[in-house]
Amino acid sequence: MGEEDARVRSEGLSPPDKSPLRDAATVIMLRDARTAPKVLMGQRGAAAAFMPNKFVFPGGAVDDVDAAVPLSPPLNPACDARLKDRADPALASALVAAGIREVWEETGLILGRPGDWPADAPKGWRGFAASGHLPSPEGFHFIFRAITPLGRPRRFDARFFLVEADRAVGDLDDFSRAEDELSHLQWVPLPKARGFDLPFITEVVLAEIAGLLETGLPPASVPFFHNTAAASEFLRIA
């Protein structure tokens, strides 16, 4: 079995089909960025239809309710403009909200600021709201976008956000409120992360993070792997 065949099997690929493309958000939480940088990762289950057994960052698809969630404060203008580039403008805040929700669900960590919700929180957000916080995009940097290539059983138009871990509320090592979607949650030293069993795109994003630690934030532009046809395109969002 060749290297590409092995990758196809390990990532749960299937022959090209008409899998629907879903908008998604992934959040890379960066700890001790100036001293010994680490990123928060967990392992997907062996039975997962998408990326089984792989170590990944917290993330997932945008839910309909995410568009109505109040962000406090609103998304910063630079991030907002880049998220709207070659995308539905109405999606920008929903993508960030989805990332914050996924961090809450998969790790139990809160990216928020104290505050009361203006109305009852929608399903999927009630636990977060009960903590007494509003979702906060403070410190979020949009650093990468990638569309899943054809042939996967699940396809996503994923936006990757980088945020320093000290934006989270409480103990960064307390994952007791996490759901069971990810196991082996841990802060992985950046130089060691590539030694884990990772999806290809995660390896690419890790390299991007290493570069940003040298050049600084926000990024000068956002890499965009555009896979909507047989050929892949590498673009940049200015």
Features:
238 residues; alpha+beta; 9-stranded mixed sheet; two-stranded antiparallel ribbon; 22% helix; 27% strand
Describe this structure in words.
- With 238 residues, the chain is α+β, with helices and mostly antiparallel strands.
- It has helices at residues 3-10, 77-84, 92-107, 126-130, 200-215, and strands at 21-31, 38-44, 55-56, 59-61, 112-114, 133-135, 141-147, 155-164, 182-189, 222-226, 233-237.
- The strands form two sheets. Strands 1, 2, 3, 4, 7, 8, 9, 10 and 11 form a nine-stranded mixed β-sheet that branches. Strands 5-6 form a two-stranded antiparallel sheet.
- Strand 7 (141-147) and strand 8 form a beta hairpin.
Give a brief description.
22% of the residues lie in helices and 27% in strands. It is α+β, with helices and mostly antiparallel strands and 238 residues long.
- Number of helical regions: 5
Largest sheet: 9 strands, mixed
Order of helices and strands: HEEEEHHEHEEEEHEE
Shape: globular
Contiguous runs where pLDDT drops below 50 for at least 5 residues: 1-16
* Overall radius of gyration: 17 Å
Query: What does the average pLDDT come to?
Result: 91
Distance between the termini: 40 Å
Number of separate strands: 11
- Helix % is 10-25%
Instruction: Tell me the β content.
Output: 25-35%
The computed structural class is alpha+beta
Oligomeric status of the shown chains?
A: single chain
